[in-house]
Amino acid sequence: MRAAIIPVTPFQQNCSLVWCTSTMRAALVDPGGELDKLKAAVAKAGVTLEKIILTHGHADHCGQAGMLAEELGLPIEGPHEADRFWISRLDEDGPRFGMECQVFEPTRWLDEGDTVTVGEATFEVLHCPGHTPGHVVFFHRPSNFAFVGDVLFQGSIGRTDFPMGNHQDLLDAITGKLWPLGDGVTFVPGHGPTSTFGRERESNPFVSDAAIAAG
């Protein structure tokens, strides 16, 4: 498996192009906007795009996913159906952020324990609510690599002050579902630089072991 990060939208959201090196089949994770830029990255990598996978329903992550799926005839997998609330309001949320967005219906909603394939690579799906109620994380166990969307960042965690956000749910998802995957997991967050779970357990002011112990 290989991946390339392509920041898009005014929020510099980390869309990722991920592909199976055996088959050169690929997926875009959270193609929120700047579709010409994303299509150029696909062409440059020399891969065949087979699907779109989504971590959650916020506009910067999925606002133009439906447009791309329609244009290229691609299925959309994710997020969890609890984010239908957010996807259903993309038409109205987009203009608030200076973005053109389109409501869509995923081909497949995802749940805890599901898997998503990209070529011959398989990603485990973890339902990690808190930032949004239907947020999911994609974990590739063979390479110890995860796409975590806006659950966790280098030195921070996702906001929970949006409608249907829940701070305790987010903390529980991070400590109860992500940390058990191991300190060696490298992750791509929805914004900013990559990090590892181990580094965040040591130094993240919100979810480090010391911060959690202090309550």
From TrEMBL:
The protein's name in its UniProt record: MBL fold metallo-hydrolase
GO molecular function: hydrolase activity; metal ion binding
Pfam families per the UniProt record, alphabetical: Lactamase_B
CDD domains for the chain: YcbL-like_MBL-fold
Residue ranges annotated for the Metallo-beta-lactamase domain, each copy included: 12-191
Domain of life where this protein originates: Bacteria
Keywords annotated in UniProt: Hydrolase, Metal-binding, Zinc
Cofactor(s) listed in the protein's UniProt record: Zn(2+)
InterPro entries referenced in this protein's UniProt entry, alphabetically: MBL_Glyoxalase_II, Metallo-B-lactamas, RibonucZ/Hydroxyglut_hydro
Membrane-spanning intervals of the chain: none
